[in-house]
Amino acid sequence: MVILMYGFMSDKQDRVIGAVAAKLRQENIAYVRFDFNGHGESEGNFQNMTVINEIEDAQSIYEYVRTLDYVGEVALLGHSQGGVVAGMLAGELGAERISRLVLMSPAAVLRDNALDGIMFGIRFDPNNIPEYISVFGHRVGHAYLQTAQYTGPVCIIHGTEDSIVPYSYGVRFSEGNDDTVVHLIEGDDHAFSRNLDEVAMIAVKFLSGIK
């Protein structure tokens, strides 16, 4: 079973995650999509969303999946902020419980930017964090603006022209784990607009190695 996690301000119908889901269906690999708190069909206020409570959401999905008698191994796949959540959850649960991990444009830059007082081009005082900042019509809350290391097999996919999260941040996730493969997609952006079908297949081929 693959647990799929989308990026910042999206939902379970996300285009990138949807493309991966379609390929997983073709390969008869089970998956689950869900909405994080404050997104899509889920309850909660978007302003109260944090990476930490998204990790808690994802862990709840993992615990649900483990109750299903037809599920053997569990893998995680995340895009953008979902990649941060997937990576940190995998680190918490460990390779004995998460068989494989796919990170697509993982947004490690979010933490660094928050420390520097900038979020999606909007500056704030990191020493006097406001109640919220407005990003694309959404209120990003104070808590958002305030790890664990996974040692199992990891696949990192990142476009070299990603202007939101530089691909160097994707490469950074590979540090310290010898069982990592990195695919840099030449000329592609954060959402893999040019090569999404190819990227989805790379992810699914890696996941299909689950035994």
Give a short synopsis of this structure.
This protein has seven helices and ten strands. The protein has 211 residues and is α/β, with parallel strands linked by helices. It has helices at residues 15-26, 51-65, 81-93, 109-116, 142-145, 167-172, 196-207; strands at residues 2-5, 31-33, 75-79, 101-104, 118-119, 122-123, 132-135, 138-141, 154-159, 180-185.
Overall shape: globular
Rg, Cα atoms, Å: 16 Å
What is the succession of H and E elements?
EHEHEHEHEEEEHEHEH
Which bin fits the share of residues in helices? Answer: 25-40%
How much of the sequence lies in strands comes to 15-25%
Cα(first) to Cα(last) distance is 11 Å
